[in-house]
Amino acid sequence: MREGLRIILEDTADIEVIGEAQDGLGAIKQAEELEPDVILMDIRMPLCDGIEATERIRQQANGPRPRVLLLTTFDTPELVIEGMRAGASGYLLKDCSAEEVGSAIRTVARGQVLLQASSAVDLLAGLANAQASRPTSPTQGETFGLTARELDVVRLIAKGRNNAEIAQELSVSDSTVKTHINHIFTKLGARDRAHLVVLAHQFGLS
Q: CATH 1.10.10.10 region(s) of the chain?
């Protein structure tokens, strides 16, 4: 599968493949050495799985953190949730088309969160189940000090909107949206947009 992905991506004009790894430890090492923009990360790998590798890569980055795009199957929504909590920017199903792979890489490279529509229902169902299986947090259901407008921004981010789309929908400037997002990250303790999406669903803010 890795060889097939490489062949597909090498034929894509605006994407350059700079490294490959056969396990999670190799991925961590190459991420540090090569500083890629985007990493396609299989969730299930030997030595160190894709979730742990994602978390370690996101923590060790000295410069801009690489965006991680998880590769998964229909039967792993819980693992996708854990991967996004670890810092992944989205996920792709392993049976996706070549066009979908390229489009997904471009999406996360732009800083957007990618939830593949064909299995988003499975992911959200998994989020709900994971939330129900844990003890209720004393802060669950609260708004964490978010203003009404900040809650609007959270809901739109959870729907996959980018800053420009949010600004247009709320009739505000791009800079205002960025300010709201900075405040939201601080109040919720979110690392990035992907983590914010997970938190929004987990705490019923979306």
A: 137-202
Strand pairing class (67-72; 38-42): parallel
Could you report the per-residue pLDDT of 47-63, keeping only the tens digit for each? Answer: 888 888 988 888 876 66
Nearest residue to 93 via CA among 112, 66, 64, 121: 121
Specify the fold of 137-202: Arc Repressor Mutant, subunit A (1.10.10)
Residue 39 pLDDT > 50: yes
DSSP per residue over 11-77, as a string?
Answer: TSTT-------SSHHHHHHHHHHH--SEEEEESS-SSS-HHHHHHHHHHH-SSSPPEEEEEE-TT-H
CATH architecture for segment(s) 2-131? 3-Layer(aba) Sandwich (3.40)
Residue spans in the chain of domains classed CATH 3.40.50.2300? 2-131
- Helix, strand, or coil (residue 93): strand
Phi and psi at residue 71, to the nearest 5°: -105, 125
Burial of 10 (0-12, 13-18, 19+ CB in 10 A): exposed
